[in-house]
Amino acid sequence: MARFGIMGGTFDPIHLGHLVTAEEARFQLRLDRVIFVPNRRPPHKDSTDVSDPESRYLMTFLATAANPYFSVSREEIDRDGLSYAVDTIRAFRKRFVGTDLYYITGADAIQQILRGEWRETEQLLEMCEFIAATRPGYALSHDDWQKSHIGRGYRDRIHTMEIPALAISSTDIRNRVRHGRPIKYIVPDGVEQFIYTNALYRERQPVT
Ligand code: ATP
Ligand code: MG
After folding, report:
1. Ligand 1, closest atom to CA 11?
2. Ligand 1: which atom is nearest the Cα of residue 169?
3. 151 lines ligand 1 (CB under 6 A)
4. Are the CB atoms for 36 and 64 separated by under 8 Å?
């Protein structure tokens, strides 16, 4: 049975934290490929603060092009409305019949899942397993699992994975660009160039 990883995110911009996490998940869970899925409208973010979907898609493409195991899907970019993971996983299960799907996230996203904050959380966990990468400040405690009925019920479907401490976030990168601080070696070279060429993050980006 083939095993695909799904790396969903806003990727505004994509950074080495995302890439290291995806590659480590591929290795640790022996995934055949990892599909990056930039969202169109993140359900948990104020969309007036998010760059246009095509720019985020292109940056994700630039960042992943050199890895033969990585690809980028337009599934959420091309779907109207809020981008819910459950809709994406339903579509992928139809498209990739007979494939096990693993949704890769940071531990902050897993905390939302344990609180049941994602749409149809339980159905989602029935359809795919989760891989949670820990990053500084987002460790999962025994209590996080025990206090949550989702944590208790789906413990065997949520894997945790240690990754090198990468305290990188897109928020920090946007702030760095705004203040003229370097982002080299935090994002891939092509993404750095794209950000400067298109004057992203200089000020608030309008929604398109
Ligand atoms: P923002 O600061 O705008 O929220 P972000 O850096 O958290 O951006 P997202 O696009 O929101 O990036 O995250 C996509 C996925 O990647 C989420 O599951 C998130 O938990 C995970 N992630 C983000 N940064 C890291 C990191 N440094 N290490 C591991 N996982 C990460
Ligand atoms: Mg985030």
Report:
1. 10
2. 6
3. no
4. yes
Distances from the Cα of 38 to the Cα of 69, 152, 155, 174, 179, angstroms: 17, 30, 27, 17, 26
Q: Determine whether the shortest distance from the Cβ of 17 to ligand 1 is under 6 A.
A: yes
Give the tens place of pLDDT for each residue, 4-43: 999 999 999 999 999 999 999 999 999 999 999 999 999 9
Residue nearest to atom 25 of ligand 1 (CA): 17
- Sign of the torsion angle spanned by Cα atoms 13, 85, 109, 68: negative
Pair of tokens at residue 164: 């090198």
- Of the chain, the percentage scoring pLDDT greater than 70 comes to 95
- Per-residue pLDDT of 136-155, as tens digits, reads 666 677 888 889 999 999 99
In short, whether 56's Cβ falls inside 6 Å of ligand 1 is no
pTM above 0.90, yes or no: yes
84 DSSP assignment: -
pLDDT given at position 141:
79
Give domain 3-197's CATH number out of 3.30.160.20, 3.40.50.300, 3.30.565.10, 3.40.50.620. Answer: 3.40.50.620
Q: Indicate the domain borders of the chain.
A: 3-197
For ligand 1, is residue 76 a contact (CB within 6 Å)?
A: no
